[in-house]
């Protein structure tokens, strides 16, 4: 069985896309370690492939494979769902949580209004909700979703995977 892994090394993304952070040591403001969003999403997708290959029950694989057309498509969908779970972290409301990392993002040309960090409304734009809205909008325009026998269920699973975590 051949798995389609992400390419090794830094992906061919813009400097803006590469600048967005996902994980930091927020309990220790003096610790400058962080993980870029693209790396976090790739890591999660790779772990999902491992889980699919070693732990997902064969009957579940068959059900998903029949619906999406092949085991390869099912495996890639499984990885995709895992990989996009934190896509909402690209939102300014998330990025501003760490001012030094937000400054790095701003230096690439992404505009983040300074008032977002102090806004009382910022909590209404949690990364899970932003990600859910973005993926729902993106998926609504994809033909492959509407062609699936259970496309509404697939969309619900995708959206739950994004909104159910913190």
Short description:
The chain is mainly α. Helix content is 55%, strand content 4%. Helix 2 runs antiparallel to helix 4 (71-83), helix 3 crosses helix 4 and helix 7 (127-140) runs antiparallel to helix 9 (151-163).
Give a written overview of the molecule.
This protein has 166 residues and is mainly alpha-helical. 55% of the residues lie in helices and 4% in strands. It has nine helices and two strands, in the order H-E-E-H-H-H-H-H-H-H-H. The protein has helices at residues 15-19, 37-54, 58-68, 71-83, 92-95, 99-107, 127-140, 143-147, 151-163, and strands at 21-24, 34-36. Strands 1-2 form a two-stranded antiparallel sheet. The longest helix is centred in the N-terminal third of the chain and has 18 residues, at 37-54. It starts with 14 loop residues before the first helix and ends with a helix. The model has no long low-confidence stretch (mean pLDDT 84).
């Amino acid at each position: 069985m051949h798995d389609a892994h992400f390419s090794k090394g830094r992906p061919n993304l813009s400097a803006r896309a590469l600048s967005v952070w996902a994980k930091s040591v927020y309990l220790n403001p003096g610790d400058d370690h962080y993980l870029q969003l693209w790396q976090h999403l790739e890591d999660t997708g790779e772990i999902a492939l491992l889980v699919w290959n070693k732990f997902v029950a064969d009957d579940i694989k068959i059900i998903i494979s029949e619906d999406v057309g092949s085991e390869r498509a099912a495996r890639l969908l499984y990885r995709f769902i895992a990989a996009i779970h934190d896509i909402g972290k690209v939102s300014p409301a998330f990025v501003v949580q760490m001012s030094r990392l937000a400054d790095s993002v701003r230096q690439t040309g992404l505009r983040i209004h300074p008032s977002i960090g102090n806004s009382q409304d910022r909590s209404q734009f949690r990364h899970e909700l932003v990600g859910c809205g973005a993926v729902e909008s993106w998926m609504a325009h994809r033909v492959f979703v509407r062609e699936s026998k259970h496309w509404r269920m697939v969309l619900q699973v995708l959206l739950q995977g994004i909104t159910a975590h913190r």
